[in-house]
Amino acid sequence: MSLIGHDKAWREWRDAMGGERMHHAWMLAGKSGLGKMQFALAAARELVAEPGIPQPEGHHPDITILMRGPKDDKEDRKREKGEPFETKRNITVGQIRAMQQRLTTRPTLGSRRVVIVDPADDMEKGASNALLKSLEEPPAGTFFVLVTHRPARLLPTIRSRCRIVRFPTVSDADLEQLLRREAPEADEATQKAAVIAAGGSPGAALDFVERDLGKLFALMQQIIAEGDPAFALRGRMSELIGARPKRERILATIDLARSVIAGSISDISPRDYPAVVEAHAELVRLSGQAPTYNFDAALLVAEIGTLLASAAPLRERANV
């Protein structure tokens, strides 16, 4: 994906690199799908590169990336084969401690190294506490870059030790241009729906097209406009999502429902505001829990549908 909206972030990063002392901990904050991880990797490569030292094209020995690992040995074998694999729910304290053990040695190629945590929101409590110790007493030449979609979920003591770079959402016009370039196979109606649903996130817009979420988006719009007293629309929504959807599809469904509800605000009566705000707040709660909680997928999909129906105009809300 071509990255857009990163100009200000690059200026902040490069100005700091050119200063007398580079801050040791950075937080890249913004909604999911803005390309923060791609920025982190490119920025890390700039930081560790030194004149006269050849830099590898692929894996860099002085850039450590901490992400949620494979769920079990079976999923680990899938990863080794280059196949899609299910991940653990969190970045574990064991991962942080293994990284800290590596920090007892010198960088491999030059005098600097970078540790990227993506997303830092997913660290379990013990991992957060362990990372805090490294942020408080960073080894010489070590820099930390924390990618975060929800900064408020991080410990205040971690946030206070980081320089924050905020990534803004992208304009609809820029998203439309991106989709025409990156997803030319999508028809105009799908591209327009993707822009509406993405809420300024390039990654979400492309995900919308790749996952073929157009029909689901239209159905959600119908539920929130008409209600669903006979439960027929919610049944169709469950069919579209599938009987055993992967966690990624569930997360995409929640984010899509949030976008639909947020987009309905301008078309509703003030008397319906409380219901819409309550439904949106509940979807925000679910989006925070879904990456780590072990939900029953069918029940969760039913709850999403019910929240959409509850946000329909009052006259359409019977038998929600």
Automatic annotation (TrEMBL):
Residues 51-84 are annotated as: Disordered. One of its GO terms (cellular component) is DNA polymerase III complex. InterPro entries: DNA_Rep/Repair_Clamp_Loader, P-loop_NTPase. GO terms for biological process: DNA-templated DNA replication. Residues 69-84 have a biased composition (Basic and acidic residues). Signal peptide: none annotated. It holds the Pfam family DNA_pol3_delta2. This is DNA polymerase III subunit delta. It comes from Pontixanthobacter luteolus.
